[in-house]
Amino acid sequence: MKEKNQLNPGRKQPLILEIKGNALDDGPGIRSVVFFKGCPLSCAWCHNPESKRVGVEIGFEANKCVGCDTCIGVCPENALSRVNPFFVDRTACSLCFQCVKNCPSGALERIGRPMAVEDVVATVVRDKSFYDTSGGGVTLSGGEPTLFMDYTADLLRLLKAQGIHTLVETCGLFDIDAFTEKLLPWIDTIYFDIKIMDPADHKRFCGASNETILKNFKVLHEWAQNGGAEVLARTPLIPDITDTPENLEAVAAFLKQCGADKARLLPYHPLWKQKKFKIGIADPAGQNPKSMDAFQDETALQNCRSIFETAGITL
Amino acid sequence: MLLKTDAQSPAKGNLPSGRTLTHLLVKTLLHTVAANFHFRPGLKKYLQTDRGWFDFTVGIRTESHSVETAIRFADGRVSVLRNTPADCEVTLIFSSDTAVRRLLSATPTEQIFMLMKSDLKTVGNQSYMNLFFFYLSLLLHKKQKKSMVKERKTERRELQKKQPTPKTELSDELQQRHDCRLAADKIDAGVKYLQDPYLSGYGISDFPRVEAFLDTHFTTTAEVCPERPRLLTEWCKKHGFETDSDGNPWIPELRQGHAFKYLMENREPIIRTNDLIAGTTTTKEVGVVVYPDSHGTMIWGELLTVPHRSLNPYNITEETVDLLHREVFPFWVNRNFKEWVRHHYNSPLCQAIDERFAVYFVWKQAALSHTIPDFPKIMAKGANGMIEEIHAQLAESGRSPEEKASLAAMILCLEGLVAYAKHLSQQAGKEAAETTDPKRKAELIRLAEICGRVPAYPAQSLDEAVNAMWIAWVGLHMENTNAGLSLGRLDQWLQPYFEVDMAKLENPQARADYIRYAIELVACFYMRCTDHLPLTPDLANWYFGGSSSDQAITLGGLTPAGEDAVCDMTYIFLKVTEMLSIRDPNVNARFDPEKNSDTYLKRLCEVNLITAATPSLHNDAAIIASLEPLGYDIRDMRNWSATGCVEPTLSGRHIGHTNFEMLNMVAALEMALNNGRHPLMNWKLGPDTGSVAAGDFETFDRFFKAFAEQLGFLIDCSVAYNNMLGRAHQVIRPTPMLSSVIEDCIANAKDVTHGGARYNSSGAACIGLADVTDSLLVIKKLVFAEKAIGFAELKAAVDADFENHPAVYAMVKNKVPLFGSGSDEAVAMANRITKFVHNRFAAQSHYRGGRYTAGFWSMSNHVIFGTLSDALPSGRQAGQSFTPGLTPEPHASNSLLDNIRDVARLDPVHMNNNIAFNVKVVPGGEDSRQNIIDRMYAYVKSYFDLGGMQMQMNVVTSDTLKDAMAHPENYRNLLVRISGYNAYFVTLNRDLQMELIERAEYGL
Question: For residue A113, what are the CA distances in angstroms to A58, A116, B451, B646?
Fold first, then answer.
């Protein structure tokens, strides 16, 4: 019961960050990806830092700003200043979004907006024809869609009613009973992140233990073997954190132990760093080795791959 | 200061009142010209034609008359006049003294842009302007050549500085695409013999003959061919043009019939070394055909420099220069479409607008060629059979002299065709006798047989059918300007001959050999089609960059009965398209979502991927839906072919002149914002429709009405000009050869130029739909709905090209959902515009009967019209290209699917001259060939399922294009699709190259 509460932020209604059309890398075929706002983990490298917090945020992108200062004039809290490197003083900001409304360039932005399930469906269903011709569908991602079980269940049900293939990308930290009861009947495929095997490291880099995650994977994988939704484990390759031989060997061993013979490795890209500035976060010190500034080179990637392949896991 | 140097102010002293120092400068220069002609004996001969002295006057002045003079050429003398007489043959009017001085120091390209940008305009016969430029060129050509070389070198240096090392991995990737080829199972019912319809076993290296032709194609500089203009002029001089040798007025059809026959009988019968097809369009390996009866004299001023220009140079011999200058052009100087209109309609406004470049270009001044001949008829019936049919019509009682002349002219043309074939047969026989190589000897003997038989008699085999078609094609180009005359449904029309041949073969090896032969024969036919190029003055390199003749071939789709038309020959043509990857023939594929197979559509995608740019893809259901309100027979609609670029013509029975004009819709928007004045031309040509500054627009609808009124005005003017030029065609160049292969002309005893065809229409290309839609959306939302900005304030920012208006610029760029973003309102706006345009065209009366149609594609003109337009409310800045065709703005959406859906939601009924929707997609490095094809297939199939009409994909990255700009030597065959036609990227002007680079790029 206790854990269940921890996993339920008490918000039935999630905020949606973005619905991305024509996605080619988030599952089979041509897909739309619905990004939820809010995640129970807090990974140091999170590629979508604006999706971590459940609540609404304000974003500022300096390269879009034309310097008209209209926003400074309309801000009731005097939270905007050219002296502040982030421009927005988030401690003072009351999130009234007057500045966003008046910003001509879109440099100031409201991050996250509530959307009725029906509106999400209406948006993604416009591309149904492309899902049909390509074997694609809709992917729920985040953030963490399982944070909002009831909403996500409604959404998945309506998508299935339209005959749309559904895929959920998850960090794995959720209440398994709610998941299997509410979501699983409407899911075709699950992309399940297995990031770090060492519990201490997991807690350190991802902000929570991996105990539930690994348990959940086992359960879902069993379901899959008995004809349930397909589950695919994915490991993001983060330099010196997840891509160490020890970790990858441990992940591979765990998958083998579960009976999984397929997985995916996600090559590292450093583009997330620019996104952090947008929501007012500087690079967190100590969690930012130099190696995190560059794209992963081909040899390093190959080394990671061979660890899995040696363990008999197809990539 | 003792000497006043300000060119704008009148100088004191002995200058006539109001004249400036520039006036003095110009007169001095003209006196120098005159002196040169008097004292240099080598020059004087150019003052003479074969029938006497040139006699004309060129006025030269500024708008304000601060400069005013003229130069007269008469009786072998050159004199400079004190004033500009009213009766000058042509007058050059400069916008200002500064413009005069700038022109004198400008590079050749800058001079072209000065003309297009209205620094200089002309009044009168432009042939004389070109002749005058030729005279200047006689004095200056060495300097001109030098400056051309210098300009080219400077540009090249700059490009290479940006990217000094070639990225060979990019050029290699394009070549490697040819090596990986998918195979497929036989699925389509119409495919009778091909076990793997993708013919994946064949590559270009399997056809050394064709490979050699391809190499010649990429390495041969075209040469101006004197044959057609020489023979045509010879005949017309001897037999008269307006009146015959007895002084009786010619019936134009009959005159053309005789002249055509003479031309065909006397042209050189050439069989290209090693070719399987006999006959050539010109006497050169690659020849430029001169049509002095249409726009030929436009090259007059460049005769000496055309081999040296940077873009698409042509070689030309001294003899050809002399022939054209002394014998040909003087005869035609007033006998062409444009000058006929100028004379007969007293220099109408609609023509003056056309000659200012910025608003519309009416193609009929050069050609009426956009149509599809009835090849099946000439293949099945033969010229002799057709002559019999015509004789039967002639024998009918009650025929008027004009009707009789029209029919007799058709007979003359067909006889000319047969005579030419006979000469080819003799030539083949002669060469066969001289050849020692047994294989080639056999081929030549076969060619002698073929040409002895076709096109006079019905074709009995594939090689006869192809040769008959080619000979007719040569004939048609001897009559009609090589601008968009198109080939039609060759897969459908050749399949019966393929089947007849195949049925005779029993063993598998013989069949396999024959399939190989059929591929080679079709490849030879494609290469034959590259043997000629249109004559383009340098200005046209910027106006219609890199375009060849655009001989469209159409494949697949439905049969006239509504069944699946895909057959063996469809795939054979696709194989050839893939292997050759050449710009012309322009291959168009029809796809019917109900009847055609996925196997076929995936093959179209694969060919598109390998060639990077072709074929163009059409949805039969939507095209036919667009034509339905025109009342055509359903079987004829199902038999449509793409013409020139993308436009539908009902094959063999329709003169649709589907590219009668290129219309700049943005000009109408600019005029609406300026109460009828076009800013760049600084000319109030349109009606008063209200002033933004005076607050005349209380609602958006009032402004839309103003826009519609200006656009309607431009449509009316261009249509009026088209109708006038249409009448000029009836007088100057009726086309009995073409008429004989267009259904109903024989039965009606009427030339196509008079409306003899079963169906008649003219179609426009309306350019800038996305730019106009987006601009109107900005005005509607920000000015009227949200009142975020005042209309006058917005206009002030637009007039200033947004300089010092960053917030307004940011707002228009970011706050309005554009066409292509998935916005219902944007789609509604685009539909509102196309509906207005369509209805306005549909309401016009047409000189041949039939209707005007509206299309939304742009060939290459979205670039030049952009150059000639100021900033727009959409945030598009002054001089920037418009989007190609009706393609959404690159920043309309991050999702290609939003673009695709919005375009598919436009109502085809208002776009009955088709559209061009350009998509740039690039495959990811790691995807398999099958994955890439599957995605391309998904885009196209869904677009068609949603109702889209046409789509064309460039499968190339901006990085590759940038590398090609800097290192063209690695990319001679890099094919790109502009907006309706294909071109070699490296032959394009830099503005077109940049436009292609800046197009939105979507991953695959």
Answer: 11, 10, 75, 44
Residue A268 and residue A218 share a domain = yes
Distance from CA of B518 to the nearest CA of A (A): 34
- Is some CB atom of chain B closer than 8 A to the CB atom of A20? yes
Of B811, B895, B945, which has the smallest distance from its Cβ to A129's Cβ? Answer: B945
The Cα A177–Cα B510 span in angstroms is 69
pLDDT in tens, B576-594: 999 999 999 999 999 999 9
CB A240 within 8 A of CB A233: no
Are residue B801 and residue B672 in the same domain, yes or no? yes
Q: Convert the pLDDT of each residue in B769-810 to its tens digit.
A: 999 999 999 999 999 999 999 999 999 999 999 999 999 999
Of B573, B603, B485, B466, the C-alpha closest to B534 is: B485
Give B924's pLDDT tier (boundaries 50, 70, 90).
confident
pLDDT of residue B943: 98
CATH code of A229's domain: 3.20.20.70
Cβ contact, residue pair A104, B945, below 8 Å: no
Both tokens assigned to B646:
């993308």
B855 DSSP β-pair partners:
B765
Q: Residue A272: exposed, middle, or buried by beta-carbon count in 10 A (0-12, 13-18, 19+)?
A: middle
Please give the Cα distance from B562 to B10 (Å, whole number): 74
User: Which CATH number is A72's domain given?
Assistant: 3.30.70.20
pLDDT of residue A6: 45
User: Which of A66, A132, A134 has its CB closest to that of B810?
Assistant: A66
Report the C-alpha gap between B612 and B617 in whole angstroms. Answer: 13
Looking at the predicted structure, is the pLDDT value of residue A69 above 60?
yes
Cβ pair B901:A126 closer than 8 A: yes
Contact B91, B58 (CB under 8 A): yes
- Within an 8 Å CB–CB cutoff, is residue A104 touching chain B? yes
| Chain B residues inside the 8 Å CB shell of A71 | none
Respond yes or no on whether the N-terminal peptide bond of residue B534 is cis (omega within 30° of 0). Answer: no
Q: Which of B871, B895, B915 is the last residue in one of the domains? A: B915
Work out the average pLDDT over B680-685. Answer: 96
Tokens, residue A238 = 């983060």
Q: What is the Cα Rg of chain A in Å? A: 20
The answer to the question of residue B336 being in a domain is no
Mutate to test the interface with A, among B793, B794, B804, B811 (most CBs of A within 10 A): B811
> Is residue B475 in some structural domain?
no
pLDDT digits (tens, 9 = 90+) for B621-640: 999 999 999 999 999 999 99
pLDDT at position A291 is 62
The answer to whether the beta carbons of residues B211 and B235 sit under 8 Å apart is no
**pLDDT beyond 80 at A7:** no
Mean pLDDT of chain A: 91
Q: Return the amino acid letter for B717.
A: C
Q: In whole numbers, what is the pLDDT of chain B averaged over residues? A: 95
pLDDT at A10: 44
Q: Is the pLDDT of residue A86 over 70?
A: yes
Inter-chain residue contact A68 with B810, CB threshold 8 Å: yes
Q: Output DSSP code: residue B553.
A: E
Cβ distance B822 to A20 less than 8 Å, yes or no, reads no
Structure tokens at B147: 């400056």
Range of the domain at A246: 2-54+118-310
Domain boundary among B867, B893, B915: B915
For residue A315, being part of any structural domain is answered with no
The DSSP bridge partners found for residue A219 are none
Tokens at B565, concatenated:
């038309």
Domains held by chain A: number: 2
pLDDT at residue number B365: 95
Q: Is A12 exposed, middle or buried (0-12, 13-18, 19+ CB in 10 A)?
A: exposed
Q: Above 70 in pLDDT, residue A2? A: no
Q: Domain limits at B696?
A: 356-366+656-724+755-915
Residue A236, strand partner residues: A266
